[in-house]
């Protein structure tokens, strides 16, 4: 796939956008690959896509070529702004760019979704920022949240943790949180060589769609608390790892009908949700 703009290598040369480590910059220069990522959410013509960290604009162009209604991007590195302005001009205003730190912005105020417009998030971020934002987006108080999907690049190892099922070594807090709040899958594996410069490890794109809560009475804080306690000592049986809770661990496990000899890594998301609800009930009664 291509558009009327110069190839990304030329853009990088023209604007001297050498990747900087402190911005976590590893660029995708292949528009076929970025278009493939942009197509992961399906039809995006009815959507405003929020892109964090567009850099020289590889994924941005992929999103616009794939028919995104409009794209709103937040980029911290002001060196990228002239290249992004060229994209905005070529796509006749369908792209708006803000020079800001994505960790500080009020997303809905920036996006100002129009009546009937879906919000989707797509991003190839530095991994530390990506995990922080993912947790922020998954822990939105109001559920269903303000976005219809997340399409995000992660280190493959992190992506595998997000989609891991019970019984696997990588199943943990991030897996429970993501799978509690929606459907998540690895949409695409991306080798290190696809990036300029190549990072040390392979990457993967995850796609997440929020779903209605399994049990709307469960409080996010209760779920996070029991899951954190259980996985803090993941090799211990629940009856031991939950001992520090402010309620009787054995009574709690009995009420939730969970075998106290299970380890956190063998407890399903549905069981954690029940555990959190029972924990909330017991706490309120105490
Ligand atoms: N999306 C581009 C691509 O795929 O080629 C660039 C990806 S690069 C891994 C990450 C981008 O995020 C860089 O352009 C970097 O400057 C930007 N960035 C890093 N931290 C950020 C933050 N906190 N807020 C906004 N942008 C950030």
Describe the structure.
α2 crosses α3. The protein contains twelve helices and nine strands. The longest helix has 17 residues. S-adenosylmethionine binds next to β1, α3 and β3.
Number of helices: 12
Number of domains: 2
* Class based on secondary structure composition and strand pairing: alpha/beta
Following the backbone from N to C, one meets helices and strands in this order, namely HEHEHEHEHEHEHHEEEHHHH
Major sheet characteristics: 7 strands, mixed
CATH topology-level name of the largest domain: Rossmann fold
**In angstroms, what separates the terminal alpha carbons?**
62 Å
Radius of gyration: 21 Å
Please identify, by name, the CATH architecture of the largest domain.
3-Layer(aba) Sandwich
| Envelope shape | elongated
By DSSP, the count of extended strands is: 9
Strand order of the largest sheet: 4-3-2-5-6-9-7
Taken as a percent bin, the fraction of beta residues is 15-25%
Write the layout of secondary structure elements.
Blueprint: H1 8-14, E1 27-28, H2 31-38, E2 47-52, H3 58-65, E3 70-75, H4 81-90, E4 95-99, H5 107-111, E5 118-124, H6 127-138, E6 149-155, H7 156-163, H8 173-181, E7 182-190, E8 195-196, E9 203-210, H9 220-232, H10 238-241, H11 249-255, H12 269-285
Parallel strand pairs: 2-3, 2-5, 3-4, 5-6
Antiparallel strand pairs: 1-8, 6-9, 7-9
Helix pairs in contact: 2-3, 8-12, 9-12
The structure holds S-adenosylmethionine (SAM).
């Amino acid at each position: 796939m291509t558009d009327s703009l110069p190839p990304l290598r030329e853009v990088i040369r023209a604007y001297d956008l050498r990747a900087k480590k402190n911005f976590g910059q590893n660029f995708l220069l292949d528009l076929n690959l970025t278009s493939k990522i942009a197509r992961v959410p399906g039809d995006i013509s009815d959507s405003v896509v929020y892109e964090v960290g567009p850099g020289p604009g590889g994924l941005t162009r992929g999103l616009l070529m794939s028919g995104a209604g409009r794209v709103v991007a937040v980029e911290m590195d002001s060196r990228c702004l002239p290249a992004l302005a060229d994209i905005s001009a070529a796509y006749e205003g369908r792209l708006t760019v803000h020079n800001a730190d994505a960790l500080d912005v009020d997303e809905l105020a920036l996006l100002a979704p129009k009546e009937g417009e879906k919000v989707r998030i797509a991003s190839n971020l530095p991994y530390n920022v990506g995990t922080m934002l993912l947790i922020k987006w998954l822990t939105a108080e109001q559920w269903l949240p303000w976005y219809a999907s997340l399409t995000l690049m992660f280190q493959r190892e992190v992506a595998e943790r997000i989609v891991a099922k019970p019984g696997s070594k990588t199943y943990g807090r991030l897996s429970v949180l993501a799978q509690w709040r929606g459907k998540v899958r690895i949409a695409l594996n991306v080798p290190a060589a696809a990036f300029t410069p190549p990072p040390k490890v392979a990457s993967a794109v995850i796609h997440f769609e929020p779903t209605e809560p399994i049990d709307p009475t469960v409080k996010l804080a209760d779920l996070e608390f029991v899951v954190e306690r259980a996985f803090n000592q993941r090799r211990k049986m629940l009856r031991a790892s939950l001992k520090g809770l402010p309620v009787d661990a054995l009574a709690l496990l009995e009420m939730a009908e969970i075998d106290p000899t299970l380890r956190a890594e063998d407890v399903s998301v549905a069981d954690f949700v029940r555990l959190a609800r029972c924990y909330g009930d017991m706490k309120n009664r105490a």
